[in-house]
Design brief:
This protein is mainly beta and 115 residues long. The chain has one domain: Cupredoxins -  blue copper proteins (Immunoglobulin-like, Sandwich), CATH 2.60.40.420. The chain is 10% helix and 39% strand. It has a five-stranded mixed beta sheet. β4 and β5 form a beta hairpin. The longest helix is centred in the N-terminal third of the chain and has 6 residues. The chain starts with 5 loop residues before the first helix and ends with a strand.
């Protein structure tokens, strides 16, 4: 994680964050034991939509009325949130990022690890 001021981040072209982190850090957003069900809550507190994409595994959205279809990308609208669930069955280090590549390139990237 970068530990610098906001103005310095802007000068570097980094102005998006994911889970409070700008860019991929040394530590993963989450570590999951293989074969277990993992859940991640995605909260979009911006005025822009974000197409959140998980590499390595497919997930389902978790809703009051059940589970959504299998997918690897979910559009989270401004000021909305969503919860995803997936079986962490593919060992490795997997990127989680906004699929709007300008957002990813300017900081909205993180990763998870499945052991």
């Amino acid at each position: 994680m970068l530990r610098v001021g906001f103005q310095q981040l802007l000068r570097c072209g980094l102005f998006w964050a994911l889970a409070g982190h700008v860019g991929r850090g040394d530590a993963p957003l989450a570590r999951d034991v293989g074969g277990k069900t993992a859940r991640i809550r995605l909260v979009n507190d911006t005025v822009f939509p974000h197409a959140m994409h998980l590499h390595g595994m497919h997930f389902r959205t978790v809703a009051v009325d059940g589970l959504g279809p299998m997918r690897d990308t979910l559009l989270v609208m401004p000021q909305e949130s969503a919860e995803i669930a997936f079986v962490a069955d593919n060992p490795g280090k997997w990127l989680l990022h906004c699929h709007m590549l300008g957002h990813a390139a300017s900081g909205m990237t993180n990763w998870i690890e499945v052991a």
